[in-house]
Amino acid sequence: MKNVDAHTLSQMTDEDLMEMFQGGHEKAFDLIVERYQNRIHNFIYRYTQNHMDCEDLVQETFLRVFRCRNSYERIAKFSTWLYTIAGNLVKSQYKKNKRMQMVSITGHDEHDQEYEIDVVDTREKPDCEVDNRLLVNYIEKALDRIPMEFKELIILRDIQNLTYEEIMQITDLPMGTVKSRINRGRVRLQGMINSFTNAETIFAA
């Protein structure tokens, strides 16, 4: 199947591409990188807030995929396997510098019945743009103080929009623990942001 054309490759699932790559079709690997490079970059940058560190970790993530391609088994969703690799590299980096940060919490699955945090500052301000920058600052400070065990799950769920099942596989935690830590992490976040801003926090199912 080494003569598969580019259009056919582009129509394949991630899992099909990995099978092609494992069979020696390196163009399949190039397409995997193309599909996921920006997503993995955004995922890692939420932690590092450092472009150089982020680029190094993204490169290392795909290098691991290349080297460990034969360890991937189709019974696992490819994206879950990939995020597990990236997450492990991030954790190693975190242990080295202890300075992981994120800019904000954005995005949620409206069909999933869970609590989402929406921070709203109701104080009157003459400059909304300046106020928004200040609020982001407060969110950064709050997230920086959240323990890693909560921060990691909030990133995966609220920023990367992964399902609970995917997070469970990535973190190797029971479903109940995943849900509990996400909600506990959000509650901690709410309390910290409120203490910084005196803002009202609205939870929406």
Description:
- It is a single chain.
- This protein is mainly alpha-helical and 205 residues long.
- The protein has 2 domains: 6-97, Rna Polymerase Sigma Factor, Chain: A (Orthogonal Bundle); 116-204, Arc Repressor Mutant, subunit A.
- It is built from 9 helices and 2 strands, in the order H-H-H-H-H-E-H-H-H-H-E.
- A two-stranded antiparallel sheet has the order 1-2.
- Helix 5 packs across helix 8 (164-171).
- The longest helix has 23 residues, at 26-48.
- It is elongated and about 60 Å long.
- The model is unreliable at 99-130 and 199-205 (pLDDT under 50).
Number of domains: 2
Mean pLDDT over the full residue set: 76
What would CATH call the class of the largest domain? Mainly Alpha
Continuous helix count: 9
Low-confidence stretches: 99-130, 199-205
Q: Distance between termini?
A: 48 Å
Which word captures the global form? elongated
The CATH homologous superfamily of the largest domain is named: RNA polymerase sigma factor, region 2, helix turn helix motif
**Strand line-up of the largest beta sheet:** 1-2
CATH architecture of the largest domain: Orthogonal Bundle
DSSP strand (E) fraction?
under 5%
Main β-sheet: number of strands, strand sense, barrel status? Answer: 2 strands, antiparallel
- Looking at the structure, the CATH topology of the largest domain is Rna Polymerase Sigma Factor, Chain: A
Helix content: 55-70%
